[in-house]
Each structure stands twice: as structure tokens, then as C-alpha cells.
Design a protein that fits this description.
Elements: H1 3-21, E1 25-42, E2 46-52, E3 55-61, E4 70-76, E5 80-81, H2 85-91, E6 104-114, E7 119-128, E8 131-147, E9 150-165, H3 173-176, E10 179-193
Antiparallel strand pairs: 1-2, 1-3, 1-10, 2-5, 3-4, 4-6, 6-7, 7-8, 8-9, 9-10
Length: 194
């Protein structure tokens, strides 16, 4: 085989490998258009609700092979808003989120299982208060399109739900305060293609 042929084959393999690696597009979480909310039963009276207002992260999304995708998200614990400044201080204290020692909540996906044309289960490590547990997010891919006023900016969007047990992360005072311990999480997230 000639040097030219070997070079041509190597170039073709390199191009093929590059196209496979680049199949997953990179997106960054659009903080102003992302809602991480939760609800928790409060002694049977009603569901107490809250939102984390400071969320950032990166998504590698492969529309053709969803299992090749990944998610990495960081939530600032101090951005908790439960519609009560006193409750926010209580929930940020040592008995609950302990935000002075653990200022971030993180989620790192470990595997993704596609369940439908636009649905998947995203498994990953949720780390809160220094404790990591595997959680499963039921995710729906909603839409992807350019901004109507800027065709060069592509945005994609997802909705997700999960249920976690706060005591699994060391929040043992939840029950003493008549809370949960089950916490229902809802996420609506928009992300910008890079």
C-alpha cells in the first residue's frame, strides 16, 4: 500500500472519529430561564414549596444517541427561596442544608436510558450536605429552536421530575419539624447551544 493510500485512510478514520465525538452538542444552562423547585408535605396541612434561584451547568446532548449525553449542574444552596426569610434561614442552617459548610448542591449524570422519542431517565449522583446518592430524573425533551429574534442562538429545553428522601442526605430534623421526609423535585431548564 502506498504512503498516499495509508495517509488517505488515516485521514478518513480521523474524520469519522471526529464526527462521532462531535455528535453530542455542548449547551450551557440559561440561569434566567431555569427553575429548580421542590415541594414537601408540611404536617399534612399543605405542601411547602421552594425554589433555588442560582443554577448553572453544562449539558452534552446527542439527539441521535441520547445515551451518549451527559449533564452537570451546580446549585447555590444560599439561593433557596421558600417565600419566608426566616424559613430560608432555618432551612439553610446546620439542621438542614448547612449552607455555610456546603454552599453547593451538585448533580453529575452517570448514565442515561432513553424511554421514548422525547423521554429518558437520567441517573446521576446528587450531592447535598456532603452526601452523594444516586437519583433518577424522569426527563422530557421539550423543544429546540433558534431564538425568534436571533437565528444564530439555538436554545433547547427540558422538564424533569424526581422524588428524594431528605433523610438519606442527613436532614434527620425534617420529620421532627413535620416535614416530608419525601421531597418532590420539579425542574424546567433551558440551555443555550455553544
Amino acid at each position: 500500500m502506498s504512503l498516499f493510500s495509508r495517509t488517505a485512510i488515516a485521514a478518513a478514520l480521523l474524520a469519522l472519529t471526529a464526527s462521532i465525538v462531535q455528535a453530542a452538542e455542548h449547551y450551557t444552562v440559561h440561569e434566567d430561564h431555569t427553575w429548580v423547585t421542590f415541594s414537601i408535605n408540611h404536617a399534612g396541612w399543605a405542601n411547602a414549596r421552594g425554589i433555588f434561584r442560582n443554577v448553572s451547568g453544562d449539558i452534552m446532548f446527542d439527539q441521535e444517541n441520547v445515551a451518549n449525553s451527559s449533564v452537570s449542574v451546580v446549585i447555590a444552596s444560599s439561593s433557596l427561596d421558600t417565600n419566608s426569610e426566616q424559613r430560608d434561614r432555618d432551612m439553610g442552617g446546620a439542621d438542614f442544608l448547612n449552607i455555610s459548610e456546603f454552599p453547593e448542591i451538585t448533580f453529575e449524570s452517570t448514565r442515561i436510558e432513553q424511554t421514548g422519542e422525547r423521554t429518558a431517565i437520567v441517573y446521576g449522583a446528587l450531592t447535598m450536605i456532603g452526601v452523594s446518592r444516586e437519583v433518577a430524573l424522569d426527563v422530557v425533551w421539550n423543544n429546540e429552536m433558534p431564538l425568534p429574534w436571533d437565528a444564530s442562538t439555538i436554545k433547547t429545553g427540558f422538564s424533569a421530575t424526581a422524588t428524594i428522601d431528605g433523610t438519606n442526605f442527613g436532614m434527620n430534623q425534617l420529620v421532627a419539624f413535620g416535614l416530608g421526609p419525601k421531597i418532590d423535585v420539579e425542574i424546567d431548564l433551558e440551555a443555550l447551544r455553544q
